[in-house]
Amino acid sequence: MRKFTGDQLVMASHNKGKLREIAALLAPFGIKVSSAADHGLDEPEETESTFAGNARIKAHYAAKATGLPALSDDSGISVDALDGAPGVYTADWAETPNGRDFAMAMEKTWNLLEAKNAPFPRTAAFNCTLCLAWPDGHDELFVGKVDGQVVWPMRGEHGFGYDPIFVPNGFDITFGEMDPAKKHEMSHRADAFAKLVAGCFD
Ligand SMILES: O=P(O)(O)OP(=O)(O)OP(=O)(O)OC[C@H]1O[C@@H](n2cnc3c(O)ncnc32)[C@H](O)[C@@H]1O
Ligand SMILES: [Mg+2]
């Protein structure tokens, strides 16, 4: 596995919630972190049907455009009773003509579970694939996951995206209610990040 030896990294994401979380995870490593927006990059189209495929598109696009190593995150929530949906299409489910509406997407998810009369607990997992790509085209991939259940109504103001309806196993609060530092210890993103650190930063 290739080691990360530089002192600069581009975060190949346009999601402010992710950028905040990954900046917090990277903070102890003394790396100068910039975002795709800092470099004036637009969002590449996520045309693959897997987290890994889309993570690679985003990281390689940013690495080639900036000449710097780039770290992307492709993630989503997979609900068992919905055959893994929305999964890779989690962001797409929130798409409206006026931008993303996650309250609407969460309501759609819950309504589908209700329509199916899905049994409780309504188990789900958050998945995260991180891709670290270099300008020469090399990359490394890291996968993380956290199991839990989808609940209703939405609870909590922390986090982003689907956090208000996801309760991780072993807890009775949603990610939206959880202190961000605690989420950083146990999320799908933290799980993948620990593997990135073990593989590339040590
Ligand atoms: O592609 P980038 O620019 O990184 O940002 P994005 O928001 O489009 O990100 P994805 O394509 O990976 O879509 C994943 C969606 O899954 C949701 N998601 C991922 N991780 C999450 C988390 O920790 N908490 C809540 N929702 C999450 C969130 O709504 C994201 O928009
Ligand atoms: Mg995206």
From TrEMBL:
Q: Name one GO cellular component term.
A: cytosol
**Quaternary state and partners of this protein?**
Homodimer.
Keyword terms of this UniProt record:
Hydrolase, Magnesium, Metal-binding, Nucleotide metabolism, Nucleotide-binding
Q: Which domain of life is it from?
A: Bacteria
Which reaction is catalysed here?
A: dITP + H2O = dIMP + diphosphate + H(+); XTP + H2O = XMP + diphosphate + H(+); ITP + H2O = IMP + diphosphate + H(+)
Functionally, this protein is described as follows:
Pyrophosphatase that catalyzes the hydrolysis of nucleoside triphosphates to their monophosphate derivatives, with a high preference for the non-canonical purine nucleotides XTP (xanthosine triphosphate), dITP (deoxyinosine triphosphate) and ITP. Seems to function as a house-cleaning enzyme that removes non-canonical purine nucleotides from the nucleotide pool, thus preventing their incorporation into DNA/RNA and avoiding chromosomal lesions.
| Cofactor(s) required, per the database record | Mg(2+)
* Entry-linked NCBIfam families: RdgB/HAM1 family non-canonical purine NTP pyrophosphatase
Q: Which residues form the active site?
A: D74 (proton acceptor)
Q: How is the cofactor bound?
A: Binds 1 Mg(2+) ion per subunit.
Where along this sequence does the record place binding of Mg(2+)? E45, D74
Q: Which Pfam families match?
A: Ham1p_like (PF01725)
Task: Write down the top EC class of this protein.
Answer: hydrolase
Tell me which InterPro entries the record gives.
Answer: dITP/XTP_pyrophosphatase, ITPase-like_fam, RdgB/HAM1
Organism per entry? Thalassobius vesicularis
Amino-acid positions noted as binding substrate in the UniProt annotation, renumbered to this chain: S13, H14, N15, K16, G17, K18, S75, F160, G161, Y162, D163, K183, H188, R189
Its name, as the record gives it, is: dITP/XTP pyrophosphatase
Question: A Gene Ontology molecular-function term?
Answer: metal ion binding
Similarity section: Belongs to the HAM1 NTPase family.
Checking HAMAP family in the record gives: Non_canon_purine_NTPase
GO BP terms, alphabetized: nucleotide metabolic process; purine nucleoside triphosphate catabolic process
Query: EC number(s) in its UniProt entry?
Result: 3.6.1.66
